[in-house]
Design brief:
With about 350 residues, the chain is α+β, with helices and mostly antiparallel strands. It has helices spanning about 65-75, 80-100, 150-155, 210-220, 240-255, 290-295, 335-340, 345-355, and strands spanning about 1-5, 15-20, 20-30, 35-45, 45-50, 55-60, 110-115, 115-120, 130, 160-165, 175, 235-240, 260-270, 275-280, 285-290, 310-315, 315-325, 330, 360. The strands form six sheets. A five-stranded mixed sheet has the order 7-8-15-14-13. The protein binds zinc ion (ZN) (2 copies). One zinc ion binds near residues 202, 205 and 335. The site of one zinc ion has 6 residues, from strand 9.
Length: about 350
């Protein structure tokens, strides 16, 4: 199966044929972010100039070659091999879902009223190609030196994807750390449930029972060095003030309800993550959801997760005691890495985090 990747360029595409590969001399990466720049990339497969005004180059290549490029750049090569295999199956399922266009990305359930904002973000469908090369989909920068451990994991699982009991490709979501309980689809995205994405207790991401060396090994296999100090986000604390919430409400959501007097969780998902939060102000109230919007509202960039308890410590300051890092739906990376280090196979890991799913070939 082939996948088509839309690639933005800096100016008109500069392309040079190099036999087996095509050299793209001005691939644009980090579009609209402060690190935006152009790089040279060696592209496998076929390359042509497309009709899209932004994604000027269309690269058609096999799914396996595509996975080598993206899994190679996203995964820590030192991660345990069974974890890498589990991730290879998930990434393949994701990529095939894109090619076959099987997942619903409708806006159904979103609300944008004066006193209520319900919103979420998801990789939307592109037109004229399956995925883009930027972080919006998965980071693709052509062929680069690929760690042997990643190549081995891809080869060992070649063609394998996750199939639901109804025979559908599983929408294989994952996040950094579920915090001890996984969440369901509807708490984060459209108001419906997806097969094999369930809420259940996860004992594996609690690393407190491990000896310190083993704990560091689990964390290092998932996180880059600068993330290590937060211990994977299993438990965290944060403080937020009324003026920060007021500023975020204005800057990120374009709403002004006066000075903030209170925050209250209205609904929680099955794991305990907040789905809808009520913000009270001197000039009105605003209900806000889902989890990603709440995380954005209560921190300069994002809170680790929307699973927290609120303690009001003064008239304008709230202390949050939180659990987990990310949306918590599907595979928990910290828990999966721990399982792999304790000797479980990638099949064990996948059947634990995607109950009812089987491994098949599509
Ligand atoms: Zn995209
Ligand atoms: Zn977990």
């Amino acid at each position: 199966m082939n996948i088509t990747v839309g690639i933005p360029t800096l100016g008109n595409p500069l392309i040079e044929n190099q036999g087996k590969y095509t050299l793209l001399k001005n691939m644009l990466i980090g579009k609209d972010f402060h690190w935006q720049r152009s790089i040279e990339a060696l592209l496998p497969g076929e390359v042509e100039i497309g009709k899209d005004e932004v994604f000027r180059v269309i690269n058609r290549l096999s799914i396996e070659d595509y996975l080598k490029c993206v899994v190679g750049s996203e995964m820590n090569p030192e991660a345990p091999s069974e974890f890498l295999k589990a991730h290879a199956v998930i990434s393949r399922s994701w990529a095939m879902g894109k090619v076959l266009n099987i997942h619903d990305h409708s806006e159904y359930g979103k609300t944008n009223l004066t006193n209520k904002i319900i919103n979420w973000e998801d990789t939307c469908d592109h037109h004229g190609f399956d995925v883009c090369s930027d972080d919006h989909c998965q980071r693709y920068q052509g062929i680069q030196p690929i760690p042997g451990s990643v190549l081995d994991a891809l080869k060992a699982t070649e063609g394998e994807v996750l199939i639901s009991p109804a025979g559908k490709l599983v929408d294989a979501r994952f996040s950094k750390c579920c915090g001890g309980k996984t969440e369901v689809f509807s708490s984060c995205w459209q108001p419906r449930e997806e097969e094999c994405l369930e809420s259940f207790d996860d004992p594996w991401c609690n690393l407190d029972t491990l000896d310190p060396n083993k704990k560091i090994r689990v964390l290092k296999s998932i996180l880059k060095d600068y993330d290590l100090e937060n211990e994977g986000g299993y438990r965290w604390e944060a403080t937020v003030t009324a003026s920060e919430i007021k500023k975020n409400l204005l800057d990120k959501f374009n709403r002004d309800i006066g000075d903030i007097t209170g925050i209250e969780i209205l609904y929680r998902g099955l794991s305990g993550r907040s789905k809808n939060l009520l913000v009270k102000g001197t000039q009105g109230e605003l209900e806000i959801g889902k989890e990603l919007m709440i995380r954005r509202l209560l921190a300069p960039t994002h809170l680790y997760s929307s699973w927290f308890d609120i303690d009001q410590v003064s008239s304008d300051t709230w202390h949050l005691q939180g659990r987990g890092w990310g949306h918590g739906v599907g595979l928990c990376q910290i828990g999966a890495a721990r399982m792999a280090l304790e000797g479980y196979s990638y099949k064990d890991i996948l059947s634990f985090y995607y109950p009812g799913a089987r491994i098949g070939n599509k």
